[in-house]
Amino acid sequence: MAKAYDHLFKLLLIGDSGVGKTCLIIRFAEDNFNNTYISTIGIDFKIRTVDIEGKKIKLQVWDTAGQERFKTITTAYYRGAMGIILVYDITDEKSFENIQNWMKSIKENASAGVQRLLLGNKCDMEAKRRVRKERADRLAREHGIRFFETSAKSSTNVDEVRHTRACPPLPETAVRPPPSPPSCSHQSLLSPTGFQLPGPGHLAQVRRPEIGEWVVLD
Length: 218
Fold this sequence. Notes:
Elements: E1 7-14, H1 21-30, E2 43-52, E3 55-64, H2 71-75, E4 83-89, H3 93-97, H4 99-109, E5 115-121, H5 133-143, E6 146-149, H6 170-173, E7 204-208, E8 213-217
Parallel strand pairs: 1-3, 1-4, 4-5, 5-6
Antiparallel strand pairs: 2-3, 7-8
GO cellular component, one term: endocytic vesicle
Family: Belongs to the small GTPase superfamily. Rab family.
Pfam families: Ras
């Protein structure tokens, strides 16, 4: 049977709670928007397969909780990421100020040279704007990364993100699909023995801190 994709990329979204990370991922993966806000507990992910440079790329886009109490869980996923997308809310000054803290977290926990991208979300709410676009653009230039303003609600710039440097160049960083691993039972995200896993049919790399290694699940 032919492979369903040529390469697998793992992307991670980080930022304060409530900035719209989950809505962005749902818009990107499912082209849908849900007005109901439910805070992410720990970590979750969606998958979308796209065509880039004539290759089928499976994007694993990981959604992380923004609350401090989940920091130990979420930072465990930084090192395996090929691209990290930092998200703030243009109507929330504090979420923008905290981008510097998220940058520091990347430096401390992610692999050297990981691709980064800055997103100012909720740009459809211009009347409530608290962060000028020029400020974010200046911050992005200081860190040598790309910057977009997005709206999960209106889909503004959401699809364009996959064409930026948040997606690593194919020759250097693409990984081949791993072999089929042994089956594994689902466990609670907050249990001492593991993380809640996605349903059948999804491919995931899950950090198991108690055994100190990555486990590939199918």
